[in-house]
Write the structure tokens for this entry.
Amino acid sequence: MTAPVQSTAPGEIGSARKRSEDARLITGRTQWTDNIQLPGMCHVAFLRSPYAHARITRVDVEAAKGQPGVIAVFSGQDFADEQGSLPCAWPVTEDIIIPAHPALAVSEVRHVGEAVACVVARDRYAAADALESIDVDYEPLEPVLDMEEALREGSPVVHSEHGTNRSYQWVFENGDLDAAFRDAPVVLERRYVQQRLIPAAMEPRAVVCEPFGDEFRLWSATQIPHVLRVMLAMVTGIAEHQIRVIAPDVGGGFGSKLQVYAEEVLCLLLARRLGRPVKWTESRSEGTMATHHGRDQIQRLTLAAERDGRIRGLKVDLLADMGAYLMLVTPGIPLLGAFMFNGIYKMDAYSFTCTGVFTTKTPTDAYRGAGRPEATYAIERLMDELAAEVGLDPIEVRRRNWIRHEEFPYDTIAGLTYDSGNYEAATERAQILFEYDRLRAEQADRRDRGDPVQLGIGVSTFTEMCGLAPSRVLGSLSYGAGGWEHASVRMLPTGKVEVVTGSSAHGQGHETAWAQIAADALGVPFEDIRVLHGDTQVAPKGMDTYGSRSLAVGGIALHNACLKVVDKARTVAAHLLEAAEQDIEFEGGRFSVRGVRDQAKTMQEVALAVFAAHDLPDGVEPSLDSDATFDPDDFSFPHGTHLCAAEVDTETGFVRLRSYVAVDDVGKVVNPLIVEGQVHGGLAQGIAQALYEEAVYDEAGNLTTTTLADYLVPSAADLPAFTTDRTESPATTNPLGVKGVGEAGTIASTPAVVNAIVDALRPHGVHDVPMPCTPERVWLAITQGAGGGLGSTSGGNP
Amino acid sequence: MPRVKVEVDGVTYEDDVEPRLLLIHYLRDRLGKVGTPIGCDTTNCGACTVLLDGMSVKSCSVLAVQADGHQVVTVEGLGIGGELHPMQRAFHQEHALQCGFCTPGMIMASIDLLRDNADPTDEEVREGLEGNLCRCTGYQNIVRAVRAAAEEMRQAPEREAAS
């Protein structure tokens, strides 16, 4: 018997490991899709519609074909027979209208930026030049830009063959709403607009496709290599086993790369038609029009409550802008909010109606939080309005309504079962860190003094559902796929470990966190574990990364796969130690006979013995590998209390965030460093919605925020420092007790910021400021009172 | 076509280039220096930041011909003898990156920032990096990293020589 090779110290899970993926990212040794160069590769550029809505009457590509360096030029007509329709995998109702969506427009364009023709050339400059020589005749049609107008009789119609701009209506009701509203002492009616946002991952999208033997290798800056492969096969008819999709290093997604895009389908078809590799890389200004947008809802909310602040019931009526087409999960996004408008609160009745509306704008789809930020914004804004109405502190009105920690598990009015949480603890911790009472005193003092710079305090006590998702729940919502995740573990002969995960990371740090999980379960050193992902040939099964699902679903699949390896290894170890299997203990990477600690085999020794296979028990395969697929029984429900202090200059409307405290409860934590980073980044995006970002269309349907000079992704100078902390209520729905964290910061922070601004301005008669709360809008609200005279009737804020 | 002679990360290259060729495309497409990415087309994001004769520039707004006779350092050329530059190390230590796409530009801009101000406050770091966008981190750990690197570089200024 040899000495153990090495065993890891207990407790990789919970340690703030520095990330292993950093090594290549800080030295520039990355493989972004746009880095890929292949022999004979050509470059693709797309000509895009300058019209929001128009009939295509002629496309002349002949002149472009003669341009220097040009290999081929195609119009939509050239692919009409083979491009199929871009997929929508979430038909939320039986009578939903899902219009045909050609990758390259054939007869009509329905948003600015829709692709109508493409050039394939020897380099990117030649391709871009030749676009100028394509001649397209358009017959302009009426744009459809305002959701409320779009539903009126006589409105121009985006898809004339369907005769209406209404895609679907989806309803959820629970409890007796009439009773809740009958003689209610307090009834609040509010209309909030969730402005349209542009996800703006730092890496623009890119696609490379190479025909290789009888397979097509397709690299894409995507969050979903597995889903994309299935969908490409279904859309193009190319057999699934002949498509290999690779997501190499991917520079952020935030939902925008959870999509099956026209350019992915077309690069595959171009590679097939030309028989050579092709590459397309999006420019930023192109991407703002061609990559899906997020949010864009009009929320009509009615809340009934008692005079003491207790909620009776809530009625939600949404208009959700689908944009011009339904993309992969477009119609389902607002419905993810259906289960969240009640937040952390108890009430007797709830109804939710969502109408999906077509407009001639870029399609919407998932953007960080996807449906839950919109819902959380609504309820958290309403709670502050309720507090003001009944004369309570906003935290007190929440306390009177929230689920108390001893009430978990709790069946909510929206039909979910929250498994765990402690809203009291998170709120108490946040109040201490924030110095809540001191800031309230300062606020009172500034009000008394008539200080031109008023102080506002914004509260957001949020929860969210994440870890998409139990497959049976997705099935009941008519979603086109399941919500499981897959992992496999391979013990190599030298004791090193390959972990394969179907969850495809693009900044989340899976290579580190997954190694931590495997190190603990297998008892091998962190450094001996390699995590493989993002290639359908290497990681053949997966449902990919979105909805804060990776850890709570994929991490559990990995944990379970590791346990299977340990079980197999135990059988072999027992044989080698000549002991009964039930007498074998496993700890710290060592299998030992109970009571005889010095007789042991390490996991590495067992791996080598299995590889040699000289002396295995009868019936045991010479393989120390395993697979596991995990399908959760339920979602996980992170929660937290966020407090924001905003100074509002009442003379200029300028808002300065003075302090921001986030206390999040994401259950057990695998890597606190990564968790804190996710919270920081989430806060930045949520604050950006509150203060800076909006995709703006002009009256003709042109997107006017096509660059990062117009679309204000905040810089370091635009954001405050954050104070973060955690409470820990382990999830009960998975063996590691973990919850998701990827979207929590974004979901919580938007209402915290707007609540702070409105709180600062209540003495001025202000009860709303539309987002983004620019100095102009804040100033208008102050000078005009109430909602600042900005009761917008359009889909966007004025 | 004009001919340019440019030193990039210690190697001198001579090439005929189209007058309109951007430095970033020269680096990426002609020299294979793909460690520096492109994040936008309007000089707003800073992902393509490199050092030109020691000063940070957005290489999407410099023509390759303007780099003729000059020295370029990209993120690939930082550090000496396999050792990371203190700024690279600090970004790793402080978890100042997630997807890492903005990181090469952010690191180069931060190095230039410290050249002007060896001991910046949080606010000065935030103002100084205003031209570099990150969508993942919320900047807090980037600020921490830059200040940590500043501290280290003040104590051992010779290690900075690589850039």
